[in-house]
Amino acid sequence: MPRLTIGAFARVTRLSAKALRHYDELGLLRPARVDPFTGYRFYDESQVERARLVVWLRRIGMPLAGVHEICELYGTEPAAAAKAVRAYWSRVEAETAARRDLALFLVDELSRPDEETTVTTLMIRHAARTDRGLVRERDQDTACAGHRLLAVADGYGTEGDRAGAAAVAALKDLDRAPGSTAPGSLRAGDLLNALEDAVDRANAEIGGLDGSGTTLTAMVWTGSRLALVHIGDSRAYLLRDGGFFRITHDHTVVQSMIDAGTLTEAEAAGHPQRTLLLRALDGGTDSARPDLRLHEARPGDRYLLCSDGLFTVVPDETIRHTLTESPDPDTAVDTLISLAHASGAPDNIACVVADVSLLRELDPAS
Ligand code: MG
User: Fold this and answer.
1) How far is the CA of 143 from the centre of ligand 1 (A)?
2) Predicted model pTM
3) In the prediction, which pLDDT does 8 show?
4) Ligand 1 center to residue 80 CA distance, Å?
5) How far apart are CA 33 and CA 11, in angstroms?
6) Which of 6, 91, 155, 179 has its CA 20 to 30 A from that of 212?
7) What does the angle CA 51 – CA 53 – CA 56 come to, to the nearest 5 degrees?
8) What percent of the chain clears pLDDT 90, i.e. is strictly above it?
9) Residues 6+ apart with CB under 8 A from 83
10) 307 CA to middle of ligand 1, Å?
């Protein structure tokens, strides 16, 4: 097989000689031969393909450890390599979405003048309810809507109800009446930190509940934004300008299979491991990492927080239709729970519906 000098190989692969030496040291791309006297590196033409793969993977920002893994897979199982790249890219997109929200928020914070001339204040109206359903003996779901806090939790295990209640109770400190100092006046970073601390406290408490755990999907209202904390497979949806969006990502085995392209949404619905959680508040350290985000609210927004007892039996399109047609949050919650009952209600159901509207526009100068 013809051998290429490092210079020729660098030209063909668009990798610098320096990068090639580095990849050699890392074991990522070993030269076919190193001259024992001069130390010159020589490459086989057959290595060009692997080198190009390295270049492409680095261009999409993959860390070297991941590149190594994909290159090894590519040699033996190209389909598995493709799957691994897809899984990496869905993780990047999910992380980018979370960072984009934070970046937009920072831009907004930094460009806001010290003395605001106009303060737009939004208000929320809400309704919250849980229902045992038609099959389960106990209701282990929790739903809460306070001055500023909207939350649902879906407990599991023998003390699942206590786990869910503990998770929601931990956030209650952040639920102050409008006009009080916190959390509306908290800086965004402080609020997210406070949420993270509250979740950590809840998780430590749940650790004492003998194998029980809970999901948690909650929003804390700051007056114009919603700080979102989410772990597990309960969900938050947004109805805005006629569009219906899911704004949380399920931490489940089937969702990770959908992300990796090995399962379709339709197949996931009937999957036997549908309820297997990758992350939950279960007292663990690795498994209890919630997603934290800031979400900009707009007048006219309608939010739904719900446990899987709703969305596994009521199709998204029916949920969207109900949210669109219901005149107020109470009606929406009641209708959604009736719909779950009409589909057999095999699980507990938790629902919170919240409407955002314009309270008033204040001009501090007047
Ligand atoms: Mg459930």
Assistant:
1) 12
2) 0.72
3) 93
4) 33
5) 18
6) 91
7) 115
8) 51
9) 260, 261, 262
10) 6
